[in-house]
Fold this protein.
Amino acid sequence: MAGELVAGVDLGGTKILTVLADRAGQVLARVKVSTHARRGQDYVIDTIVESVHETMRMSGAPAGKISAVGVGAPGPLDPDRGLVFFAPNLGWKNVPLGTIMSERLKLPVYLDNDANLAALGEHVYGAGRDADHMIYITVSTGVGGGLIMDGRVYHGAGGGAGEIGHVTVAPDGPVCNCGNAGCLEAVSSGTAIALRARALVDDGRGAGILAAAGGDAEQVSARSVSVAAVAGDAEAVVILRDAGRYLGIAVAGVINLLNPSAVVLGGGCIQSTAALWDAMLTEVHRRTLESSLAAVRVVRGSLGGDAGALGAVALALERT
Amino acid sequence: MAGELVAGVDLGGTKILTVLADRAGQVLARVKVSTHARRGQDYVIDTIVESVHETMRMSGAPAGKISAVGVGAPGPLDPDRGLVFFAPNLGWKNVPLGTIMSERLKLPVYLDNDANLAALGEHVYGAGRDADHMIYITVSTGVGGGLIMDGRVYHGAGGGAGEIGHVTVAPDGPVCNCGNAGCLEAVSSGTAIALRARALVDDGRGAGILAAAGGDAEQVSARSVSVAAVAGDAEAVVILRDAGRYLGIAVAGVINLLNPSAVVLGGGCIQSTAALWDAMLTEVHRRTLESSLAAVRVVRGSLGGDAGALGAVALALERT
């Protein structure tokens, strides 16, 4: 029977993850390749198209069996037109990715923002299952988010909803990449954690963090802070607790504002240590209204790096 | 023809406003009476029922012409069951207002939170017209809010969405009524403005504000601050600017998070002076992502104190 399968693609700045799944969301094949963004837009799109074909070959399914493709892409985009407005990690501006892929694959292609699709993935297949009102937050290099309302991705008026990374949590805090001061991303992202750790090391302190970076100040990263914290380093724990505290302020704020049934957190900084997570939870319990706190579960994502590709599968299934 | 009219009731702690309107939302009669909450629940419900009858008499419309009643009530409630969980201003706990009114009036009665209905009122008849994604914020004694998403009131998982007054904007700020520190309500409400002004006066400063309160320190209120600011008093202006700054931080946050097409602000503190409004706008322009800022208009409500009752009309019309 035709149209039994869909492909989901998570297009990132460094990797492209493609999965082939059946209508139940069961993954039949999985391909992860480097993006090589510097080789240009045509190369990247060729790679995506080839990845979809490759999953077909791996599964042994005949070409007619695939009915649609979902794609998660970075940056602001227009889901209806399948147009990526701007993706600095890829060096793209106004790329009609949906149209190009659809012509190449002779299939309907549905596009959405990568964080929105990670939210949808966790909602349909992961830790946010049964939560029709769900907030997804990813904390890694940056901080992103996606909103599920009444079981669907919420886009807002112009497709830009979910940018929790640029909600102010520290009015007089450090300047963010976006130009504002005290955005969540400027105090709780992996980049923010690394910057604080480097400043500490440059100041002659942070010996435990420096050791975790192999003694090389240039190699100090959020990962070194995390490793040092796990080993009990007090300075590393303070940095992660502060990041967690601000994350908790933001999480409490969205719970009070949106009264969701679940908040699901993903990304490298969430998985790595207890210090950040525990500080986040403490702040959430402190700052959330009782009735809204009782209605919500705050949990780690269960799909890891597959959330986006599985969300793309869910998008393709939702539309077909 | 039967069922041409609907009534909208805004039940407040001090006043009950009831309007009778036609299907176009045109107001045919309007009754405003004191709530007298201390006289008890039966008295208050009698008053509401009588208000609805009074608007019918005023309009000269026969009883059969009214098809439904919408009611906005304070406090957390269950719109589906028409149940007011808790309304401290009325002294109510678990009052099945919808059922009681429906039995008394022999009409369908639809209930929602007062801030949600003010949001719906401004969306359908006021400054948020044509904005299918709209945030409403009221700044008066407290700070409340309502969310319009895809043209309808968004309730979240448990009916509690919209509580922007309890979003943290000053992590180490003053303690709020809810017990947390630095909620928007604790720094930008009329109560917060009055508290700061009284502290100033108690400290022997704030001469302009004290004069605006007739020289009586006990009478210092948000209104005195506003009057003093309009007269050019520098201390009053600083207080209102600070309140406006935090309001702007919250408004920018919800714009970044929800990408609405309009933010509509109402309540006494919004109408009173330019100082708070201008400081709010400055902060919004500073902290909102460019693409989301371009998509939104931030405006004062146009319905004043009628927003809630007109929202109740819109609710009744939406359901019938």
Q: What stands out?
A: The longest strand of chain A covers residues 15-22. Chain A has two domains: 5-121+306-319, 129-302. The CA atoms of residues 141 and 191 of chain A lie 5 Å apart.
